[in-house]
Each structure stands twice: as structure tokens, then as C-alpha cells.
Design a protein that fits this description.
about 250 residues; Nonspecific Lipid-transfer Protein, Chain A; two-stranded antiparallel ribbon; alpha+beta
């Protein structure tokens, strides 16, 4: 995000480092991109401590020449696509907080990083930026559902006591596979549609991603009908989102 703390160059460096880390992740024979402290933080990171990891990632990338960074970013994107071209997209890979994400989900996360931080830079420079819905949908379909299907590790750990009450939320869009996410006793699972649900959400994928990453407000997004919440018990959604959340 381009803020008082992060410049445009910092933002590009952040995305470039993620691409480099994913290239190394897809090639386990290569040395880790981060030092020992960074690797340790990778393993214990939760959604709420991603900012600590981001600080370490930027520390390990002193380059701030945008031209140099973009050249490296494009090279790493090309390399990660090359080394995964014939790989099984369902291959589980180690990710943050001891979680497991399928290979396709890791690549979808990289696409989302380019989209969200591209939006940040465009906003800072007052330039137009379009996020294609089908591309944005990959983050929900492949990454979010992927990590919830495999293993969230410590990623969603929270200080909030687990709720005994089961909360089932159905997600649907024109670009994603309909799915139900269930929070029960602090654990999130993925179910097929058809059973009873408490909340139904229909969404525009770019708007959902921007809202979940705190780039646009929930009220504004709802008023524009980019996200529509319904179902018999919509008041349960805030409790669900306190656990199923993004940085």
C-alpha cells in the first residue's frame, strides 16, 4: 500500500520480493530468499502479524530503483511460470503460518498482489486501474478456498474464544464456483452448496478483494451493490469475518 510509510518504490519492491519468494518456493532446490529471522517469521505469521513479515521482506530488498525492480519482477514472474508449467496445480506448498496452499493458489495470490498493489500505485499517482473480474476471482476460487481446504496452520489464529454456534456462509459470483464456508469451534471448513446456511453473499470479485484488503469501505461497497448480503441470519456475518479475514 502506498502510504506515509510505503512509497511507490517500496510497494514495487514488496511485490518484486513476493515474486522472488514464490520462484524459490516453486523450486525447492534453491536457497531461501529471506534470512533466518525472515524464515522464522514466515512460519509463525498470522493474518494479524503480516505487517511484521512485510517489514522484514522490505529490509531484505534494499533496491529502490523502480526500473531495476520491475525488470526483476517480470523475470521472476516468467521464471515461476516456467518452472510450474508442467506441475500439478493441486500440489500443496508450505505457506505463511505453517499453512498449506495448492500451487494454483500461490499463483493466484501473486496475481492478486499485482492487482491490489497496482491499484495502490494507481491511486497514489491518480491513474486509472482496472481489475478484470475473472482474474480477481482466482484469488477467492484458488487461494482462499485452497488454503481453507488444505490447512490454515496458524494463519487464522485469533484471541477470540471459539464459538460453539456453527456459522455457514454461502459465497456466489458470476466468476467463481459456488461454495459454503463454515466456521465452527474456531475451525473453518469448505462445504458444497445445498445445505442450510446462515448468510448468503453475492459479490463482484474485484470489489470483494479490495474490501477484504481494506482498500474500499464495506458500506460504500454494499451501497454500490458490488456485494449483496442476505440469508436468514445475516447478523452472524461480523463474527464470521473476525476469523475469516485478510491482513
Amino acid at each position: 500500500m502506498v502510504t506515509a510509510e510505503w512509497t511507490v518504490a517500496d510497494t514495487v519492491a514488496h511485490v518484486a520480493m513476493i515474486a522472488k519468494m514464490y520462484t524459490a518456493l516453486a523450486r525447492p532446490d534453491t536457497a531461501p530468499v529471506l534470512d533466518a529471522r525472515g524464515q522464522d517469521q514466515l512460519e509463525k505469521t498470522t493474518v494479524d502479524t503480516v505487517s511484521v513479515l512485510n517489514t522484514l521482506v522490505l529490509r531484505d530488498c534494499p533496491e529502490r530503483d523502480i526500473g531495476v525492480l520491475v525488470t526483476g519482477l517480470l523475470a521472476d514472474i516468467e521464471e515461476v511460470l516456467r518452472v510450474t508449467e508442467d506441475a500439478d496445480p493441486a500440489t500443496p506448498l508450505d505457506w505463511l503460518g505453517d499453512s498449506k496452499v495448492p500451487l494454483a493458489g500461490v499463483l493466484a495470490h501473486l496475481v492478486n498482489e499485482l492487482q491490489i498493489h497496482g491499484w495502490d500505485i494507481a491511486e497514489a499517482l491518480k491513474l486509472p486501474w482496472t481489475i478484470p473480474p475473472a482474474d480477481a476471482a482466482l484469488f477467492f476460487d484458488l487461494f482462499m478456498v485452497g488454503v481453507l481446504t488444505h490447512d490454515t496452520g496458524h494463519l487464522l489464529d485469533t484471541d477470540e474464544p471459539p464459538r460453539e454456534r456453527r456459522i455457514a456462509v454461502a459465497f456466489r459470483s458470476a466468476y467463481t464456483t459456488p461454495v459454503v464456508l463454515v466456521l465452527h469451534r474456531g475451525r473453518v471448513t469448505v462445504e458444497d452448496p445445498g445445505g442450510p446456511v446462515d448468510v448468503r453473499i453475492s459479490f463482484d470479485p474485484p470489489s470483494l478483494n479490495l474490501m477484504m484488503f481494506h482498500r474500499v469501505g464495506r458500506v460504500r461497497t454494499a451501497l454500490k451493490r458490488k456485494i449483496v448480503v442476505g440469508g436468514p441470519r445475516p447478523w452472524l456475518l461480523p463474527a464470521f469475518l473476525r476469523v475469516v479475514r485478510l491482513p
